Amino acid sequence: MRALIFDLDGTLVDTVYAHVFAWQRAFAEAGMAIDGWRIHRRIGMSGGLFTRAAGRELGRELDPQEAAALQERHGELFAQLLPERHPLPGAVELMRFLRANKIVHGIATSGSRPEINASLDALGIDPDVLVIERGHVLRAKPEPDLFLACQQRLGVRVEDCYVVGDAVWDLLASRRAGMLSIGLLSGGYGEDELSRAGAFRVYRDALELLHSLDELGVLP
Amino acid sequence: MRALIFDLDGTLVDTVYAHVFAWQRAFAEAGMAIDGWRIHRRIGMSGGLFTRAAGRELGRELDPQEAAALQERHGELFAQLLPERHPLPGAVELMRFLRANKIVHGIATSGSRPEINASLDALGIDPDVLVIERGHVLRAKPEPDLFLACQQRLGVRVEDCYVVGDAVWDLLASRRAGMLSIGLLSGGYGEDELSRAGAFRVYRDALELLHSLDELGVLP
ipTM of this model? Predict the structure, then answer.
């Protein structure tokens, strides 16, 4: 019995560019200029790693208060900039298909409730679908904790799980967890970046994945 | 005598993610959801091609008034979202170095004055540096017109020009113009996407290019 474990932002909902821009504005407001593409390539890693990496770009470490203030401002700006959530193409249909066909699946995200509620609502995720969020584990991606927690709660074996994600952090975390992974271009990475990070397959988006489930051997 | 022809947005100034997000909001306000990554991969192509491609995503053609309204709203949102302009790392130093060492160079952008003035100011571009903008030619990228107009005004031969850009549209236009091209990652494309589109070299940003000018045979 195979299982699919999904990342959320950039994989099922179209939020990556709003996150990038909200971070860029939060830094700019604090007088710190960080290149958009460097932020983009770090979306989806843990907040702690993110601010440490940002500090390296700026040439000095950010102290914990500063990091917390940036994170809070990012959250405010994100909510203002993107009041609604758009599922990525095929995401709603894919979730519905997995459910209807009793294919084991769950979501494992670096985000937290209540921030992710709007995304889950937009996707029409049933309340009994397993969602592992940041607060449920000690360490976020690229550590494997989120995916391993999801696998354990789903009651499947590590080697039977596929991780589906849009960022190299998802793919790295899945390798650390001992799971196969599938990359989606819908978060804005290039195909080759995802393949080189270990993706077994790369699809454009959830819609192409839905039409390619045969290739993965997850259909009953 | 070799010459360097530069793209502006994403190559010298950090504006790509603000452009992506401004387009995404302009479409969302008009009730049209277009994935962020698809907008990202089309930044830098001509506005006409862009709205035609957007129409294909939406499954219907946009009429000229609709396209013009979207373009105007994008401009307003962009100005609100990004009141200041940040040069990308090394961009100011690179421009200064080329000038000091009398290496022939110019800028060829799909943007137009007065919108691009803030970017040129942030870069400290001297008023006598050649800037070819959208209105100077009939067709924008990926047609070669902008680069060919720049080359002709610089008084150099096509085969002596390098185009420096962050998007596959720059690289495609440079090939159509018969020029070599250099890709920069600072617009958020992956390295492989730029190499496959024909970039002779790919650097992280203008700073790495500045430190790599030896490799290009442009130093006097």
Answer: 0.91
